[in-house]
Fold:
Amino acid sequence: MSEPKKKKTIKRIIIDVDKCNGCQGCEVICSAFHATPQYSSNNPERSRIRVIRDPLADIYIPVYAGEYTAAECAGRDKYMIDGKEYEECAFCRASCPSRDAFKEPDSGLPLKCDMCESDPTLDEPMCVQWCLAGALVFDVREEEVEEEEQEPEELDLGIEALANRHGWETVLAAVSRLSKKDD
Ligand code: SF4
Ligand code: SF4
Structure:
């Protein structure tokens, strides 16, 4: 008899690009929420959400920071929206060696959306709360999944690649800074 599957909570933010007006409120609050001390500064460069903006065409597209990748991918995507051509990689969520997006400006270390994990847990992530246009909608659901196996080799490889690039001292200082939420 097979093992009962585990329940996993899936958190999503549904993005309605038609409602986004490019105000950058999400970028401001994300960077402030994750600043150390919390709310001590705001800088969209440190935000885990970035809004691709083309005011002349009235196009605004929020993109969330996803996983760190040690190597850039071999292929590229080309997006055309309303006749405007966007640069390759513009909508990619990865923190990747090929570009500056989703990296801490000072250290170059990767940024990733953590859904504003905090204690106590927020009812909704900060960017959703601050999006007065209603372009970001928080959605939570339970899904049945197979038991997950931790893959230490991949984690080790990622951290080692960062350390080779920035040095262990910088990596450890940044990890400690990024994991602090309440001071
Ligand atoms: S806060 Fe909402 S409307 Fe403003 S830029 Fe972000 S997603 Fe767009
Ligand atoms: S969910 Fe939180 S961490 Fe993720 S982009 Fe929004 S404010 Fe930033």
About this structure: Residues 152-166 form the longest helix (15 residues). The mean pLDDT is 86. DSSP finds four helices and six strands in the chain. Residues 6-179 form one domain.
